[in-house]
Amino acid sequence: MGTITGTAAGVPFTALPPTGSAEGPAPLIVTWHMLDAPRTDAAFAAALPMTGVPAWRVHLGMPMCGARMVGGRVDAIIELARKDALMAFLAPFVHQAAEEFPAALVALRDQLPVDDGPIGVLGGSLGGAVALEVLTMRRAPIKAVALVNPAVRIRSVVGLVVTGMTGSGEPYPWTAESRKTADELDFVARAEDVTAQPPLLLVSGELDHPALRTDAAALIDALRRRYAHPDEVELRTVPDLSHPLADEPGLEPAPQRPAAKVVDGILTQWFLRQLTAK
């Protein structure tokens, strides 16, 4: 069986079948891609295929990305970032992706031969914030969580968007409302909301943005203090890995970068271990 593409409750997806010839329903891993390259579900599937994992790897499309991209271009996304980096762009993307997930999960179970057990989730960059929102809001039973260069504190990402995407030299105009929204998307502060305490792996690129690396370390520290089994919270640092996992424009499947191949291997071995754990 080859790659399957489709929509689940209106959410586009790229699904890779499990490795091996075992019959019957297989476990499910759901991912959310970056808004840097690779910035579509198909491109993310090519960057991190996790070949060798005996589970369905279903890569969901983020809002306004891939098949939902306006006019097949990123112009509309950039315009939202210029309008308001947090309130019109980052927060709505995270909230919409998390809110549409439960219905998409039901549809995926109807369309694919997946089992009904707890799922694995994976998120890269802003997709990492989605995975953490799904986890903290308990939107589905989760067996394992993996994050790659994640957006752990949205405040840190706001500055990167203002500088990188909008080209503005002006500081972000914080208001009482935007500060409240940023607090709600600060997963270090919300570490106590991870009540189920599934095994969690965070992969951090050695060349990722310094603020994101600092936030990643803070999240790991906060979770280890709260987990009954702190060794189930892991941090792996990958040399030569910057923030993106693929070359620009990152819209279509492309050959793996060497650093992405390393990340793919780490994720593959980690999910193999989690799927076989009792």
Overall form = globular
Poorly predicted segments: none
Largest beta sheet: what is the strand line-up? Answer: 1-2-4-3-5-6-7-8
Which percent range describes the beta-strand content? 15-25%
Number of strands: 8
Description:
- With 278 residues, the chain is an alpha/beta fold.
- The chain has a single domain, classed as Rossmann fold.
- It has helices spanning 41-47, 75-83, 85-111, 126-136, 154-164, 176-184, 210-226, 258-276; strands at 4-8, 11-16, 28-32, 56-60, 119-124, 142-148, 200-205, 233-238.
- It has an eight-stranded mixed β-sheet with strand order 1-2-4-3-5-6-7-8, sandwiched between helices.
- Helix 2 crosses helix 3 and helix 3 packs across helix 5.
- The chain is globular.
- The mean pLDDT is 94.
